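Narrative of activities, Objective 1.

The group set out to show that a structural description can be obtained from nothing but a protein's sequence at a throughput compatible with the screening campaign. Below is one input-output pair from the validation batch, recorded exactly as produced.
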Amino acid sequence: MDFNNQDTAVVITDPQNDFLSPDGVIWGLVGASVEENGTVGHIEDLFRSAKDRAQRLHLAPLLLPHGPRLAVRRNG
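Output recorded for this entry:
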């Protein structure tokens, strides 16, 4: 598939260590899925592909007005 670099960008929305790292607070809930789907590797592939093709790459962080607040409810 061909893309025109003038009107194409790769946008990664809010990649957070809480979801993507074994040290993250949510890892216990999502870690198996992240690993099973190769999520981190696929994000790395997107970065590499955009760089190799000289495409624009944008990270869109989620900005919370009063700082990060995350409640984790665990079963058990």
